[in-house]
Specification:
Strand content: over 45%
Oligomer: single chain
Helix content: under 10%
Number of strands: 40
Distance between the termini: 35 Å
Shape: globular
Structural class: mainly beta
Largest sheet: 10 strands, mixed
Length: 472
């Protein structure tokens, strides 16, 4: 069947049958209050968020499966930062200089302790749940990174202390031994930023980027949102890409201090987060159609899955994911909503997504995977273009009867690159080498999978599409 006949067949089917149900975004809250900073528990069972109670800042929570479960755990005029306990049993939160622990069931919070100094800020917690990490100013002009035991047995201890350098974006690695942070000379907002690493006891404080990253047109600059991709070796962050002058996800390693891109323009990728198993990066992204959505990709780089690219969102905080990257939550409301619309907590569940990894560099090998069930027939298609989710702005997405989701790839250029039947042992996969052609640098192609049941060829699904951008 040639490309023209494929396109004609898809359109004929779309006109002959009603559209199937869609994968989608599920609102978990509907109280009408403002919601911000949605943060999934590691277990994926709960989302914590900032809201208000009678005009007072509050820490809220909602279950990801139980309906109408939105509740306020605690409130306080100085309530700001919060972090999940690694076992998802509760949250540590900050109310002014005081740090408390509250269980997911609510009740009287436990005072962990009070932080001294100016402007203390909680940033992270270790994987054992024994140590909180943050920043503060012991006095005007001085800045520090501190550790604080969750038991409250001892006071916070400054492990890094500086004068004249603002410290922020603190993250502890999965081993609990290494802490990353950013350091920037205070006084001016756009001075070069150094990405640094220190042992949890304050020893071996070194730069991961070979010193402050200069704000030039040849290097990533202004790094923020540090997250560890592994145990003390690879650090991910958001920074300005010199090629597109947009926010992108980059990484440095202890072996390579030069920042390397994991995403590329022209659309931005910002507000970087990572799953607790360090397999999946989550971020706020913009689609090829200029819609703002949540997105995910492998932590080692590769294909980017945009969640749900038919919708355009205003975000109130970063997107978040759970331990394995199965669920993604964010606070937001749709662009074009009625004036006065408040952000609600939104949840998206991933569904056997295509995986392409590692980062597709020219001349290097990549692996394409299409998850399929036993005896399920799968085909992975490639195209150089997308259909538009808005029918007023171009050829729109094409539904196929019996299949969940729609054709998102431009069927005028549709190439099958992988096909097979599931054997129950794993995904269909293909190892391929990216042509070493400089013309491909920065070029993006799109992948979408089709899965049908062997016993019922018109029963199955189309996957979400994947953006695959090539890098030098």
């Amino acid at each position: 069947m040639n490309l023209t006949s494929i396109s004609a067949a898809l359109c004929t089917l779309a006109l002959a049958f009603p559209a199937p149900c869609q994968r989608g975004v599920r609102a978990l809250t509907n109280a009408g209050n403002a919601h911000a900073d949605a943060t999934l528990s590691p277990s994926g069972s709960w989302v914590a968020f900032k809201t208000d109670q009678a005009g007072v800042p509050a820490l809220g929570i909602v279950h990801t499966t139980a309906p109408n479960s939105e509740a306020v755990l605690q409130s306080g005029v100085g309530l700001t930062r919060f972090v999940w306990a690694p076992d998802s049993s509760g949250l540590y939160y900050q109310d002014g200089s005081a740090v408390y622990y509250t269980r997911t069931q609510g009740g009287t919070p436990r005072l962990v302790g009070t932080l001294t100094g100016l402007a203390p800020i909680l940033h992270d917690i270790d994987s054992a749940g024994t140590l909180l990490i943050g920043t503060r100013s012991p006095k005007v002009g001085d800045y520090s990174v501190f550790t604080f035991p969750t038991s409250g047995a001892t006071a916070a201890v400054d492990i890094v202390q500086t004068t004249g350098y603002f410290l922020s974006s603190v993250a502890i690695d999965p081993s609990g031994k290494k802490i990353a942070y950013t350091s920037q000379a205070s006084g001016f907002p756009h001075l070069p930023i150094d990405v640094r690493m220190v042992d949890v006891d304050g020893k071996n404080d070194v730069s991961l980027t070979g010193g402050p990253i200069p704000n030039t047109a040849v290097s990533f600059s202004l790094p923020r949102d540090l997250v560890w991709a592994d145990a003390g070796q690879t650090l991910l962050f958001t920074a300005i890409d010199p090629a597109s002058f947009t926010w992108q996800v980059a990484r440095v390693t202890t072996a390579s201090p030069l920042p390397q891109a994991l995403t590329g323009g022209p659309g931005f990728h910002a507000d970087t987060g990572v799953s607790k198993d360090r397999s999946t990066v989550v971020y706020r992204a913009i689609t090829a159609h200029n819609y703002q959505v949540a997105g995910v990709c492998p932590a080692i780089g590769g294909g980017r899955v945009l969640l749900e690219p038919e919708l355009d969102w205003n975000f109130t905080g970063k997107p978040s994911t759970d331990s394995t990257g199965f669920r993604v939550a964010f606070a937001g409301y749709l662009v074009g909503s009625m004036p006065g619309t408040r952000a609600e907590i939104q949840l998206i569940e991933l569904d056997r997504e295509i995986k392409v990894a590692p980062l597709p560099r020219l001349g290097a090998s990549v692996t394409l995977e299409l998850p399929v069930a036993l005896n399920e027939q799968g085909t992975l298609f490639l195209s150089t273009g997308l259909l538009h989710p808005d029918p007023t702005k171009g050829p729109t997405l094409i539904p196929i009867p019996g299949l969940v989701y729609k054709v998102a790839l431009n069927p005028a250029v549709l190439i099958p690159v992988l096909a097979g039947v599931g054997d129950g042992k794993g995904p269909l996969s293909l190892n391929a080498t990216v042509p070493n052609d400089p013309a491909l640098n920065g070029f993006t192609v799109y992948l979408q999978g089709l899965r049908v049941k062997s016993s019922s060829p018109l029963s199955g699904d189309l996957t979400r599409y994947v953006e695959l951008q090539f890098f030098q």
